[in-house]
Amino acid sequence: QAVTKAQAYIASRHRIVVDIDLEKFFDRVNHDILMGLVAKRVADKRLLKLIRGFLTAGVLEGGLVSPTEEGTPQGGPLSPLLSNLMLDVLDKELERRGHRFVRYADDCNIYVRSRKAGERVMASIETFLERCLKLKVNRAKSAVARPNHRKILGFSFTQGRKPRRRIAPEAIARCKARVRELTGRQSGRSLAQIIEKLSLYLKGWCGYFGFCETPSVLRKLDEWIRQRLRAVVWTQWKHGRTRFDELQRCGVGRELALKTAGNPRGPWRLANSAGLTMALPNVFFASRGLPYLAPR
Predict the structure, then answer these.
(1) Which of 21, 58, 126, 227 is the most exposed place for a label (fewest CB within 10 A)?
(2) Consecutive H or E run containing 3
């Protein structure tokens, strides 16, 4: 919903984004300010005491407990709720000023019509956060820029009159890094085991990023993943004779099987050869439960 709303703002000619990154947000939350905001909504003093105890419980490092005088525990069950209570103050201020914005946890983007307006908004919001919430904007990671140069929740947008949702390059890079981990050629796992773990990851990833409107990116990822798996199988076949026999068993003709098995190129380059793509087509991996990322 946040990404769709951002897309609508861009389509309405708000083509500059004020991308605000809060420096170490979960580590810097002021306890007194936060508890004051909680107390406005919660009257039960026992519950307030419990939340304060959650915030000040300390951190266990190397067998020693370090006190926590500010911040909320990252990954703690209350932290997302408390961060929303804290930044609700920012939401109300942006609404009061009439800004078009989206915020998810500590990820906040404000959409304006010009770069000059964006710089002005950035400066004023930075002052507001420091004065009212004791939060600091990370200037190195924040920016006033075109939406296609920034990302929100793993997505970016194409240029043009009708911006389309696309997956941010950083998200694609993280996906490829994870796939490389799961498809290591020296992992010692069988192809079935690799596909089982890989499928779980890809289903979850596609459940989130399948929301994009640039299917060509997903198709390229599908091709790249299957090339990775062919390289894994080629490595597992190990020797020339085994490779020749397996290629023939998969329906490759004798001449092509000989040519492929005797090819000195490495597994990655051979993974897209005629012999291997014939022996291990996409339907082979689909029959073993590997999902497609791109719509079929």
Answers:
(1) 58
(2) helix 2-11
